[in-house]
Amino acid sequence: MDDRELLLKLGNKIRYERVRRHLSQEKLAELANMNMRSISTIECGTTDIKFTTLNKIATALDLEVKNLVEFVL
């Protein structure tokens, strides 16, 4: 799996979990102490993501990081 495909899959997983919880990008950004544009670019797979950022998103979604990356494990 190349980097682009990996980022797309991660972004899709984050989007899926956000929508499943009936959260807007704006609300997730607020819960994760981030800006909405960052959430958008992560979900679109157009930006790489630091582990600490991934942890903030996972925490905001009431998940563990492993739940967001299980597709590569």
Q: What key phrases describe this protein's structure?
A:
mainly alpha; 434 Repressor (Amino-terminal Domain); globular; 73 residues
Q: What would you say this structure looks like, in words?
A:
There is one protein chain. By secondary structure, the chain is an all-alpha fold. The protein has one domain (3-62): 434 Repressor (Amino-terminal Domain), CATH 1.10.260. 66% of the residues lie in helices and 0% in strands. The protein has helices at 3-20, 25-31, 36-43, 51-60, 65-69. The longest helix has 18 residues, at 3-20. The chain is globular and about 30 Å long.
In short:
The chain is mainly α and 73 residues long. It has helices at 3-20, 25-31, 36-43, 51-60, 65-69.
CATH topology: 434 Repressor (Amino-terminal Domain)
Rounded average pLDDT: 96
Detail the poorly predicted runs.
none
Strand content: under 5%
The helix content is 55-70%
Number of helices: 5
Q: Could you state the order of secondary-structure elements as H and E?
A: HHHHH
**CATH secondary-structure class:** Mainly Alpha
Instruction: Please compute the radius of gyration using only Cα atoms.
Output: 11 Å
Characterize the quaternary organization of these chains. single chain
Overall morphology: globular
Total number of strands: 0
In CATH, the homologous superfamily goes by the name: lambda repressor-like DNA-binding domains
